Amino acid sequence: MTKWFSGLACIPLLFMNAASCMAQAPASPIVLHVDLTDAPRRLLHAHMQIPVNAGPLTLQYPQWIPGDHRPTGPVDNLSGLKVRANGHDLSWRRDDVDMYAFHVDVPSGVTTLEVSLDFLATPGDTGSDEDQATSPNLTVLEWNSVVLYPAHIPVAQIPITASLTVPADWKLGTALRITGQNGPETSFATISVGQLVDSPVITGRYFREFPLASEINPKHFLDVAGDAAEDVDLKPEYLAAVNQLVRETGPLYQSRHYETYHFLLSLSDVIREEGLEHHQSSDNGIEKKGITDPNLAMLNAELLPHEFTHSWNGKYRRPAGLATPDFATPQKGELLWVYEGMTQYWGNVLAARSGFWTPAHYREALAWSAARLNVKPGRTWRNLEDTAIASQILRGGHGYWANWRRGQDYYPEGELIWLDADTTIRQLTHNKKSLNDFCVKFLAVGGNTPPTVVPYDFDDIVAGLNEVAPYDWRGFLTERIRSNVPHAPLAGIEHGGYRLAYGAEPTEYEQAYLTKMQEVDAWFSLGLMVNNGSTIDDVRVDSPAFQAGLGPGMRLVAVNGHGYNGDAFKAAIRGAKGTASPIELIVSNDNEFRTVRLDYHGGEEYPQLERVQGTPDLLDEIIKPLVAGKASGL
Ligand SMILES: [Zn+2]
Fold first, then answer.
1. pTM score
2. Is the separation of the CB atoms in 455 and 320 below 8 Å?
């Protein structure tokens, strides 16, 4: 039975035990004003009036930012903190253990604290996405970087009234309800601290807002900011795909859990790339040419579909371990293979259905991720579920030995599991049902709602799948998330009428990736990825390169007696195919040099999906649009 909690105010009921020490929510709102007039020099100013009672008080800076899957709150960039009351400075003391907590003794008779702080929008050390979200021409304001709130109160119960001043000629876009406009200052309706942190603002000198799919309610918008006027003139094919995306989610999810939805899109080589989901908006950051360059557009195709899908899967339906009452409570990531894995599946399907990708690009992207998972030795010691539980230490991990450590495989391997589930349902029901039916039961429970969190656990997933097609779903899922078998679950691809194969040339999708990352792929042949011209990015454990003693960080100096370059390296792999001659490399490890001979004769190997003739072409069926009017590929 699915647990149902209607309304944000009900969420704290989930945490009766954990919240037993929770303080009482303030009756009047925090008043927050943020001043971005210094944003072009990467300095954000905030001032708060916080209603308080006399006595000890702890102010909390957000640490566990929803969607970051690790404690990234950029507290190292919080500066200039001043606390005042009745015109006098009050001293504060940071907690000795919790770097995000600030203790204040509120004198008797004081009912309001005046708190001011600056946020340094400069590179920091917490892994935050907010500290590099401003350029001379634009800012993406995630409010968690500029807010403090009273600790031990569920953030859904703390009211806050925010306003924002932007540089004189900047415009803004947000899902927040605007209540007033006074020159460069915008006032927003009172909401909870939880909702405010969930509702970023994009603002910039070069800004455009595009209404989307006007026949659909609630209303959708694309708000784009860039570093030059021409960057925000989006091409019609791209806008057509975003419009189609909104339409395609209608039959797929059959519900909407927002009052309006804003895709916030930054196109910039100055600020960070980003993808962060929210209930009523998403923070999407790609390169300046991330849409106009066809190769970058192909690589970015699933970003908007993925983050939009999270409004249903992740924000509305959320694993209980991630539905925490505040930003200080640690999150438990064990079900991220649902939160992110199913979102990865539908995000990629929607990218194809909406026309961001051609069907071939969809298959090429699937082949690329499936192949890498299929030869990832780390899966023999760390199961998929552990990559989810350990998300907070895997996110942002180094590439060296990443195939042995594993990374956030709950995304791409989650996609394979949900493709497997989709094709299994179609087989079990003779194509009468699909994972779409599960989506309707699971993501549309309660019908259309305002932003609300409906938590779930593993049993809810099993029960929901059984309602669609009775099967041993508990065994199906458990086997896939807890297995240490050496290969990835590829049954969904095979049920779909394809098999993973290898060709002598990279696919268009893979070549676009290799060009962007400036890498040479010898992963499926020698077991090497080489970047920055000559440095080994990683060595696949048990590959020919591994057996020869190579390791990440070493440099390839020469290939077959000539100075290294990527083309010569690839030519050497091709040249050794079918011969008895080894590939001879001179390799440096710091200042030690040695010659390595690799007896590999299989030639270049690049993954692709190969059609298995005579089997149902389910994969292509899955990515067909549900709504007429799509373009195919950008
Ligand atoms: Zn995601």
1. 0.95
2. yes
Q: List the beta bridge partners of residue 608.
A: 501
Span from the CA of 411 to the centroid of ligand 1 (angstroms): 8
Degrees, nearest 5: CA angle 68-70-73: 75
Tens digits of per-residue pLDDT, 520-553? Answer: 999 999 999 999 789 999 999 999 999 999 999 9
> What spacing in Å lies between the alpha carbon of 300 and ligand 1's midpoint?
13
Would you tell me how many other CB atoms lie within 10 Å of the CB of residue 463?
A: 17
Which DSSP symbol is given to 134?
A: B
Query: What are residue 298's phi and psi, to 5 degrees?
Result: -65, -40
Q: How far is the CA of 385 from the centre of ligand 1 (A)?
A: 16
HSE at residue 124, side-chain half, CA atoms within 13 A, is 22
Centre of ligand 1 to C-alpha 72, Å, is 16
Distance 276 CA to ligand 1 centre (A): 7
Distance CA 311, CA 309 (A): 5
Tokens (6 digits) for 156: 């859904």
**DSSP result, 371-422:** HHHHT-GGGGTS-HHHHHHTHHHHTT--STTHHHH--STTTHHHHHHHHHHH
- The rounded Å distance from CA 277 to ligand 1 centre is 7
pLDDT tens across 562-580, in order?
A: 999 999 999 999 999 999 9
Digit-coded pLDDT (tens) for 212-257: 999 999 999 999 999 999 999 999 999 999 999 999 999 999 999 9
